[in-house]
């Protein structure tokens, strides 16, 4: 993405990154977490809003008018995570169909740049997966660091 990401930091030695989404109206504290799935070396990515009471939500709609910057930040975090752990695979999907569709649109728009460093797979509704195609609906995505 051409958008400059927000500064972010690794919160702990596990796999949690945090950053602030900033607009003229408000600041929304966000977290990107990577949680190991039951399948070895596959980590689930979650983009979360940290609410005022400290709870985390993947359903919150912060509407901070900075979606390109937030997504650019997430992409940079993915890149850092996979550079640190190149053998890991990241899986993610939206917390609802609308967000999964949004992620597909962003990947489609940026696929040429993404494919320079990563292999992107789409997981179909039947559970099978394929190399990402721009006009295909998916229930989730896999990101794998390309090996040199």
Describe this structure in words.
The chain is an alpha+beta fold. The chain has one domain. Helices cover 24% and strands 35% of the residues. It contains two helices and nine strands. The protein has helices at residues 67-84, 97-114; strands at residues 8-12, 16-22, 27-36, 42-50, 56-57, 89-92, 118-123, 129-131, 140-145. Strands 1, 2, 3, 4, 5, 6, 7, 8 and 9 form a nine-stranded mixed β-sheet that branches. A hairpin with a 5-residue loop joins strand 7 and strand 8 (129-131). It is globular. The model has no long low-confidence stretch (mean pLDDT 91).
How would you briefly describe this protein structure?
The chain is an alpha+beta fold and about 150 residues long.
Order of helices and strands: EEEEEHEHEEE
- The number of helical elements comes to 2
Helix content: 10-25%
Q: What amount of the residues lies in strands?
A: 35-45%
Q: Give the overall shape, derived from the CA principal axes.
A: globular
Ranges where pLDDT stays below 50 over 5 or more residues in a row are none
Structural class, by secondary structure, is alpha+beta
